[in-house]
C-alpha cells in the first residue's frame, strides 16, 4: 500500500480512471490520504446491474454528486441504471451540468416503452459530447428539443437504439447544430417524413440500419454539409436522397 500512496496525484488519478465511481469511492477506506481523493477525479462512471435497488442507486448518486459540489466534472457516464421516471434522471443531469460537465454518456438508463424529450439544458450548457444508447429492441421514443438548433458547444452527438420523433407537425426532424462535427445515428427506427441534416461544420456522418416504422409513407433525407469529409450510410431505407453542397467529402 505504501507504494501506491507515494505515487503522485496525477498518476493516481489516471489509475483510478479505470474504476467505476462506486469502486472509486470505496478506495477512501484504504488510506487516509484517499479519504477525499475520489472527489478530485474528473470522470464519474456509474455502472450497475439492472436488478440493483433504485433507492441504493439514488443514494449513491446523491452522495457522490453532492460530495463533488466544489469541483468540476469532465465526463459523466450513467450505464444500466434504469430510472423509473425521467424526472429523476433530469435532476441528476441538472446537478452535473452545474459542475460544468463536458461529456455526457447515457447507456441503457430508461425503462422500456417510454417517451422522452431530452432536457433542453443539455444543448444550452457546457456539454460538448452527448452519447445516448439504449438496447434492442427499440422501445424508447426520443425527441430532441428545439434548443439543439442553438447548441453552441455540442461537437459530437451519437444516438443508438432509440426511436426518433419529428420536431414539427410536418414530420420533419432538423439537425442543424452550429458547431456539430460528428453525428452518428445507429439503428434508430422512425416514421419521419424528412430527416434534414444541415450542420455547417459537420465533418463525419454515420447512419446505420435506419429501419422505417411505416413503409407505406414516403421518406426523404437531406444532407447539406459543406465541410463533410466522411459519409457512411448503411441500409438507410430512404426513398429519396438529397445531397447538397458537399465539396469536401473524401470517403
TrEMBL record:
It comes from Thalictrum thalictroides. It comes from the Eukaryota. Gene3D superfamilies: 1.20.1280.50, Ribonuclease Inhibitor. Residues 1-49 form the F-box domain. This is F-box protein. InterPro entries: F-box-like_dom_sf (IPR036047), F-box_dom (IPR001810), F-box_SCFL_complex_component (IPR053197), LRR_At1g61320_AtMIF1 (IPR055357), LRR_dom_sf (IPR032675). SUPFAM superfamilies: F-box domain, RNI-like.
Amino acid at each position: 500500500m505504501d507504494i501506491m500512496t507515494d505515487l503522485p496525484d496525477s498518476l493516481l488519478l489516471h489509475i483510478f480512471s479505470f474504476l467505476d465511481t462506486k469502486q472509486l469511492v470505496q478506495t477512501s477506506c484504504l488510506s487516509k490520504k484517499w479519504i477525499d481523493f475520489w472527489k478530485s477525479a474528473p470522470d464519474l462512471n456509474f455502472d450497475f446491474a439492472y436488478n440493483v435497488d433504485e433507492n441504493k442507486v439514488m443514494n449513491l448518486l446523491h452522495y457522490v454528486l453532492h460530495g463533488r459540489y466544489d469541483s468540476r466534472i469532465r465526463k459523466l457516464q450513467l450505464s444500466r441504471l434504469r430510472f423509473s421516471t425521467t424526472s429523476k434522471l433530469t435532476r441528476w443531469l441538472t446537478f452535473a451540468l452545474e459542475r460544468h460537465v463536458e461529456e455526457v454518456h447515457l447507456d441503457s438508463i430508461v425503462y422500456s416503452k417510454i417517451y422522452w424529450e431530452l432536457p433542453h439544458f443539455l444543448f444550452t450548457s457546457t456539454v460538448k459530447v452527448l452519447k445516448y444508447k439504449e438496447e434492442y429492441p427499440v422501445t424508447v421514443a426520443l425527441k430532441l428539443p428545439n434548443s439543439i438548433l442553438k447548441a453552441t458547444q455540442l461537437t459530437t452527438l451519437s444516438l443508438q437504439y432509440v426511436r426518433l420523433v419529428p420536431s414539427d407537425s410536418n414530420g420533419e426532424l432538423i439537425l442543424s447544430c452550429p458547431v456539430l462535427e460528428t453525428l452518428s445515428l445507429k439503428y434508430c427506427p422512425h416514421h419521419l417524413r424528412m430527416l434534414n441534416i444541415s450542420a455547417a461544420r459537420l465533418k463525419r456522418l454515420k447512419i446505420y440500419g435506419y429501419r422505417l416504422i411505416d413503409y407505406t409513407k414516403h421518406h426523404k433525407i437531406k444532407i447539406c454539409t459543406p465541410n463533410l469529409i466522411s459519409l457512411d450510410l448503411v441500409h438507410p431505407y430512404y426513398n429519396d436522397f438529397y445531397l447538397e453542397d458537399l465539396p469536401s467529402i473524401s470517403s
